[in-house]
């Protein structure tokens, strides 16, 4: 069975996605790209040794980056682990390595290609490792939205703010229209900067991060925010709604963090009295409001590091990271916020066979699955990324 066999309207659960098979692209959440190449068998007992040998043979020639949501079998080979922004920065800080193997998802590899030097080549071990949130904002849809804002007579006062979790095309759109990229750590500073420049913000593509930041950190009301649905004429909004809005949120979300519900919070509080609920700001507004703490991936890691022995934590973020943190903090009770499995299916596509294949190909002198952003797109995307770096809060950047 594949996810495309599911009845109309039935969403595959993350567990179902995992069981369906890793070599089948998930056309609802992935880029629909088959990964070419003669991959080693997942049952090859020598995979770990092969990865180790290929990496040793490449030495300083290769720099392996691993996002926090990657599998343990992959993360063990990362030279650096981190969030998407930290990893892109790290890639740029290692110009002596001509090959950057990015164990993460497509938009992250694009950002690494934009920020690294021209002689560096960025490899994504599985091209099907997309991001459902990034794919919810296509360049043509965003251009249509902007045209509607022009027609409504409001575009001159609109500043785009795009989350790091967006394609290079959307980052370039943002740069062309005088906006900035943001991360979950500097979303507040980004919105404040944007409101110093214009009257309204077009926030792409994560509605939850945009809404949570505007309401909980900038003190706006929910009525200040409207939701642009790219699948409806004029986003499903009237011209008056566009004129009255302060924040125009794109109808996008993370399929992992968007699964947590208010029931998950209530259930874990009943199950573990005194538990601290800590969630990522990509979660729904009602979940973030009901939680005790909200923070980016790096903040979640730092909070657990600083937590006292014996404390209990329910984490609303990706399951690979939660499992790793639970193992690292055996003196604390660390549980997943939801009772159902919640891996990021696209992050999970990068597995040991794909990593071995990409590293061994480099040893043989073949660069496979190179991610390359065209010059014009890269230029404007970098304008938006540089604007983010110029924000005061970007000195200690986290995503
Ligand atoms: S966790 Fe969410 S935002 Fe991150 S890569 Fe997966 S789908 Fe995209």
Element layout with pairings:
Layout: H1 14-20, H2 47-58, E1 62-67, H3 72-75, E2 80-82, H4 84-92, E3 99-103, H5 106-115, E4 121-123, H6 139-151, E5 158-163, H7 168-176, E6 180-182, H8 187-195, E7 200-204, H9 207-217, E8 225-228, H10 239-244, E9 247-250, H11 262-271, E10 276-279, H12 285-290, E11 293-294, H13 297-306, E12 312-316, H14 319-328, E13 333-336, H15 352-363, E14 370-371, H16 375-389
Parallel strand pairs: 1-2, 1-3, 3-4, 5-6, 5-7, 7-9, 8-9, 10-11, 10-12, 12-13
Antiparallel strand pairs: 4-14
Helix pairs in contact: 2-15, 4-5, 7-16
Bound molecules: iron/sulfur cluster (SF4).
Residues 69, 105, 131-133, 165, 254-256, 318, 344, 346-347 line the site of iron/sulfur cluster.
């Amino acid at each position: 069975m594949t996810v495309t066999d599911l009845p109309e309207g039935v969403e595959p659960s993350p567990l179902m996605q995992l069981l369906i098979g890793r070599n089948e692209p998930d056309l609802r959440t992935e880029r629909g790209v088959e990964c070419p190449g003669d991959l080693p068998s997942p049952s090859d007992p020598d995979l770990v040794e092969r990865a180790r040998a290929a990496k040793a043979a490449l030495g300083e020639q290769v720099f392996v980056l691993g996002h926090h949501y990657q599998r343990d079998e992959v993360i063990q080979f990362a030279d650096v682990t981190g969030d998407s922004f930290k990893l892109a920065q790290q890639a740029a800080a290692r110009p002596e390595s001509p090959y950057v193997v990015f164990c993460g998802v497509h938009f992250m590899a694009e950002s690494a290609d934009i920020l690294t030097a021209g002689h560096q080549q960025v490899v994504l071990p599985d091209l099907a490792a997309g991001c459902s949130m990034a794919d919810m904002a296509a360049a043509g849809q965003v251009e249509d939205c902007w045209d509607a804002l022009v027609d409504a007579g409001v575009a001159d006062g609109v500043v785009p703010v795009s989350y790091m979790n967006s394609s290079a095309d959307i980052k370039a759109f943002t740069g062309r229209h005088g906006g900035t990229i943001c991360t979950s750590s500097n979303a507040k500073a980004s919105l404040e900067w944007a409101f110093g420049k214009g009257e309204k913000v077009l926030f792409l593509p994560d509605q939850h991060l945009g809404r949570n930041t505007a309401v909980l950190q900038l003190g706006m009301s929910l009525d200040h925010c409207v939701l642009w649905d790219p699948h409806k004429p004029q986003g499903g909004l009237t011209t008056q709604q566009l004129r009255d809005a302060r924040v125009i949120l794109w109808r996008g979300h993370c399929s992992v963090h968007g699964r947590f519900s208010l029931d998950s919070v209530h259930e874990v509080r009943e199950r573990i009295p005194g538990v601290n609920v800590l969630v990522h700001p990509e979660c729904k507004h009602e979940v973030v409001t009901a939680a005790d703490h909200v923070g980016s991936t790096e903040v979640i890691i730092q909070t657990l590091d600083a937590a006292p022995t014996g404390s209990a934590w329910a984490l609303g973020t990706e399951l690979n990271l939660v499992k790793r943190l639970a193992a690292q903090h055996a003196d604390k009770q660390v549980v997943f916020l939801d009772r159902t499995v919640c891996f990021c299916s696209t992050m999970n596509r990068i597995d040991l066979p794909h990593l071995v294949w990409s590293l061994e190909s480099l040893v043989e002198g073949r660069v496979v699955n190179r991610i390359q952003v065209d010059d014009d797109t890269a230029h404007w995307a970098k304008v938006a990324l540089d604007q983010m770096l110029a924000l005061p809060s970007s000195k200690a950047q986290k995503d």
